[in-house]
Amino acid sequence: MKPVPLPALVRVVPAAALLLVTTACTSDSPSSSFSEPASPQASTAPAATTSPGRTTAMNIRLTLNGHRVAATLNDSPTARDFAAQLPLTLSVRDFHQAEKIADLPQKLSTSGAPEGAAPKAGDLAYYAPWNQLATYYRDAPYATGLVPLGHMADSGAEQLSTADEITIEAAP
Question: Between residues 54 and 172, which one has the greater pLDDT?
Fold first, then answer.
């Protein structure tokens, strides 16, 4: 067996510790801010503080082809950086018949971000190498440089597949 390089351990150990602490401090009902969509009536303010300088997931709303779709951003530095840019209206274009991509006005932080991700339909992500928002209407293979931001309600993937523009704002 090959030894794990020190830089990999430096990234994994704090994340594992945070996961353990978060899991120990939550209720028994399973939930994930990355995979659970937000309710449309959620507050615009971030949820209660979990530790100094950290907040839980943020509810947002997407408008696709005139249809409003609830979504949730995860609690990561990249997602918080993205939320700071809202509201945004972006022209989107199809990429690989699985996602819609859009150029962002400013680069996002990738501090503590994974090296990549394998997105599922409904996922919102940041493709750091090209400074783009990636929104998925189909599952896609793992991509290096892809940072998960959150997830939209199930109806979002269907609406997204035909969208030419996306508006993203904090949920009212």
Answer: 172
